[in-house]
Amino acid sequence: MTQTQALQEYLLRLADSDMILGQRLCELCGKAPALEEEMALMNTALDLIGQARNWYEYVAELIDDGRDPDKLVFRRDAHDYRNLLLTEQPNEDFAVTMGRQFFFDVWHYFTLNSLARSSDERIAGIASKALKEATYHLRRSSEWVKRLGDGTEESHRRMQDAVDILWRFTGELITPDDTDHAMAEAGIGPDPEPLAQDWRGMVNEVLTQATLTPGAEDAWMYMGGKHGEHTEHLGFILAEMQFLQRAYPDATTW
Amino acid sequence: MPQHGDSASMSALDGLIASDRAPTNARPDLLTEDDIWALLQEVKDPEVPAISVVELGIIRAVHWDGKELTVDVTPTYSGCPATELIEELIVEALRDAGVRNPTINQVLTPAWTTDWITTEGKEKLRAFGIAPPETSSGKMSLLGESAVITCPHCGSNDTERVSEFGSTACKALYRCKECLEPFDYFKCI
Questions:
Q1: Interface predicted TM-score (ipTM) of this complex, two decimals
Q2: For residues B148 and A184, which has the higher predicted lDDT (pLDDT)?
Q3: H-type alpha helices, A64-191
Q4: What is the pLDDT of residues B47-82, one digit of tens each?
Q5: Shortest CB distance from A47 goes to which of B77, B140, B173?
Q6: Which of A13, A11, A6 is nearest to A55 (CA)?
Q7: A81 CB-near residues (< 8 Å, 6+ apart)
Q8: Could you report the per-residue pLDDT of B152-178, keeping only the tens digit for each?
Q9: A with B: how many residue pairs have Cβ under 8 Å apart?
């Protein structure tokens, strides 16, 4: 694997994770528990999809095979997607939605923090923009985790259930592979070890304040999203998201 | 990166269609960079029409390269849906003034901050009913914005946050406990 290939692969992971989580959140449009929460969820989705576009534009230039960001999003099948498995998990109840957001936001915040100092100037630019947005996301999702965890008996039970359901998908966030190592060595991506420590540190801190119990550090973890091996959910997301472009390829007027 | 007014592909067709030609009364050769800034002062933010794109701080640079004008624009948020519309409005305003095929260059670095909203811009926001960003972006801490947000309607400091996010990506929703009116707060980033 050359460094350019590793860079493409790494950028696709960032782009696809933002895109798929953004799409997931959009499913809640018109269905969120309260108006303010709906606006917040849609704003978060918008930020993520905007960030995804910035990453896709860069990766499209590197791949340079004529595909633009739209083609990358609407014409790739599940095995070509490189998003984290966590991002494709269903919304379920509000506790799961916010739990998924929280685990992702912690990872996103520390990752972007490091990418903002990347040796690749283009990445540093996109990341420093995205970091401001991710900081807001993290503040909100951690507040919700605390409020639900340290809330009523019912909200506590549901928030703990959400942590238990989602925990198995969190290992992938902080378990580096060859691509992650290659990026770190090139000074482009974050150092895997401090990233994992920061993620664990903040997750434990917030869950403790929320009176919630984190999963075991050595729990069995689902991996594979970064290599195109996905849970069954991604196919359904793509079926809905890509329908129009698949049915009417290259249509310019809707 | 979107590049409006691709001059290379247009050159063969330049001037063939009347609407492509600069108005005969336009004197783009007389427009200085200061004139362009003044012109852009008339282009309003479509989401917040009270302030211009210049006051919002998203115009980063304006420069002539011979007869080619380039305007550097930075988005407020990565996913701001108004970005493309704003770029179109800028191109339209420049074309109306006789600048042919201006180029919009989207820049991400350094990232836009609310510190770039001009003092006049902040006052206009307040008059429009949107509380302007209170603190310097550098002071925003991760775990809470401690600044007192003043109600743009009655000036009371007794306000509370309803939601971290408001009607657009750049705003949060607040309520005044004094006059009981809800209001938008321009988030500090």
A1: 0.76
A2: A184
A3: 69-74, 85-88, 94-115, 121-149, 153-166, 171-174, 178-185
A4: 888 899 999 999 999 999 888 899 999 998 888 888
A5: B77
A6: A11
A7: A16, A20, A225, A228, A230, A234, A238
A8: 999 999 999 888 888 787 888 899 999
A9: 80
Q: What does residue A145 show for φ and ψ, rounded to 5 degrees?
A: -60, -40
**Chain B residues touching residue A26 (CB < 8 angstroms):** none
pTM (predicted TM-score):
0.87
Residue with tokens 């896709």: A56
If DSSP codes are grouped into helix, strand and coil, which group holds residue B110? coil
- Beta-carbon-side half-sphere exposure of residue A173 (alpha carbons within 13 Å): 29
Domains of chain B as residue ranges with CATH: 7-106 (3.30.300.130), 114-186 (no CATH)
What is the per-residue pLDDT for A208? 98
Would you say residue A36 has pLDDT above 90? Answer: no
Using CB atoms and an 8 Å cut-off, which of residues 134-173 of chain A contact chain B? 135-136, 138-140, 142
Q: Which strand ranges, in their side-by-side order, compose the sheet holding B159-163?
A: B130-131, B182-186, B171-176, B159-163
A60-85, pLDDT tens digit by residue? 999 999 999 999 999 999 999 999 99
Do the Cβ atoms of A47 and B173 come within 8 Å?
A: no
Sketch out chain A's domains with CATH numbers. 3-247 (1.20.1260.10)
A237-250: average pLDDT: 93
Let me know: does A88 contact A228? Beta carbons within 8 Å.
Answer: no
Rounded CA separation B18/B13 (Å)? 11
What is the distance between the alpha carbons of residues B121 and B127, in angstroms, rounded to a whole number? Answer: 10
pLDDT higher than threshold 90 for residue A156 = yes
Determine how β-strand B130-131 pairs with β-strand B182-186.
parallel
